[in-house]
Amino acid sequence: MKLQRIREAIDKTDRELVSLLAKRMELGLRTRPYKKNTVDTSREKAVLERANQARLGLLEEQFVTDTFMAIMAESKRIQNMDLSLVAFQGDHGAYSEIASRNLVPHKAAYIPCTRFSDVFSGVMDGGFDIGIVPVENSLEGAVTQVNNLLTQTELKVVGETVVPIHHCLLVRPGTDHREIKAVYSHPQALGQCSGFLERNGLEPRPYYDTAGAAKMLIEEDITAAAIASPLCAEIYGLEILKEHIEDDASNQTRFLMLSKTPYDKEDGDKCSLVFATTHEAGKLFEVLQVFAEAKVNLTRIASMPHRQDKGNYNFFLDFEGNENDPKIRSVIEAVRSHSKNLNFLGCYPSISGK
Amino acid sequence: MKNLRLTSLFADGNVRARSTVDVGGVIVGNRPIMIAGPCGVESEKQTLTAAVAVKEAGADMLRGGAFKPRTSPYAFQGLGVRGLKILEKAKQETGLPVVTEVIDPRDVSWVAEFADLLQVGARNMQNFSLLRELGRVKRPVLLKRGMYSTIEEWLNCAEYILSEGNKDVILCERGIRTFETYTRNTLDISAVAAAKELTHLPIIVDPTHGTGRPSLIQPMSLAALAAGADGLIVEVHPNPEKALSDGDQALTPAQFSQYMQLLNRFTGAVSGWK
Q1: Between chains, do B113 and A177 touch, taking CB under 8 Å as contact?
Q2: Residue B37: which domain range?
Q3: Is the ipTM of this complex over 0.85?
Q4: Domain A264-354 classified CATH 3.30.70.260?
Q5: For domain A2-79, which architecture applies?
Q6: Any CB–CB contact under 8 A between A241 and chain B?
Q7: Cβ distance A100 to A256 under 8 Å?
Q8: pLDDT 10s digits, A317-341
Q9: Which residue, A19, A148, A179, B93, is the most exposed by fewest CB within 10 angstroms?
């Protein structure tokens, strides 16, 4: 029994080691946009020195040096792999990461960010190649923080995807369902599964993030459950006790792919823009009339309060067409003349057109 | 009988319409239905093989135990929630609604998340806290007759479930203990007709446990249908010799297929078997 308990602790430590190594590689990769060369001998020397200063217990200097040489060699190899840096908000396993994997399935590293604004600014300053952000949920409506960032961004929308939100009840492997009392997740996910929680007498505990809750289960070693994506089960080594615990199976979120350079290809068949109007009668109507007369189909109209101009609104429009089509070009120009602060977000291939 | 929700007659003597129960889209109480599958869920492969085989032979629902009530505490106790996940997968693959046993009141809500029909086994027939819990879920219940129970005791147990608000109860005759030893139990076919006389609930018959002998499954199935049973529940295992429980009484997929063919031929004359 004692041996087994010690081995369990070893397994947990190994899991932490691997997850730290993955994080170390990710951070190494993130330095790439800011330096000319992957090899920097003075930096490597400093890393080895620092590692040996932190050395404690049974660790010999030679072992620490060898280990870190191996880590840095692998880090350099990854930096030379020509991976796209794809940023998303949330912890690993978040629904945004699923969207990222859908949109950039190959040759990519998926980098978690704390805030949506970190994704936007990171792509803007070249730290990331691509950013993936949720724009709208079928049950909850617009993701206001993202939509607000979109009103002012210079980034371009270069793609979209829709991710079905299928929540899973995750537990540490081997957990007895009868022992589960509390369930951790983002308040929105807890709300979307409230029927399941009630039926089974489980107490919802709000957490900052779905994937964060899954990560916490494995790190804190507590007997509870988390509501998160199936990807989280894979990433954190958790067991899926029950799939599809959401009350409404139609729940889905639409994500946009952002880049500094526009998509600019012929198969772009959807455009997004945002604008405001002056406080005059019929101004919004004039804009919509442009689309009606040109027979351009709108796929989304959303409004949100203008944060800099109290009492006024920003309007988000998605419509079908390619920006290089003369008809669409003249529509955009007409919209510009009838509105103010028009921000053309981009033209990209729609998910339905694929 | 004083069981107000169960009886076939209203207080004024008028006949109550017979109930039908919707189990994941399969209606029990119109034409006879067939429930088949292994005694216990042992592995994904074993369950999926059995599920595909019984579906091909024409079964309407899949059975399989994830929580097993065993005579000995050292016998295979079932895979628990992991077994329920396998049943859910078998349901996705075959489209067959799933029937599984629940033995603990604490598991009722969990089993209801996975299964379409919750079975109360013979050994738990008078587990009143379990019955009350089952009365509160929105899932139909299959109530087996206890091996030492009179018909009246059994029907009182159905009333427990109905009285809590769950009106979807299917009765199941599975044999009772007598002094006979050649058969595992004595299948009480008269209970089928009696239940129809006394109640408005559908009733099915389990000839596998009722006889404990594969050779007797077929004749007793025919007898049950002739007596008016709304369906049958039989055990089918892809490899009965290797089964972790009750292997000696299960049919092989080939035997089950033959059995279904014979039932189809015979029952055309008796009832609306498909």
Answers
A1: no
A2: 21-265
A3: no
A4: yes
A5: Up-down Bundle (1.20)
A6: yes
A7: no
A8: 999 999 999 999 999 999 999 998 8
A9: A179
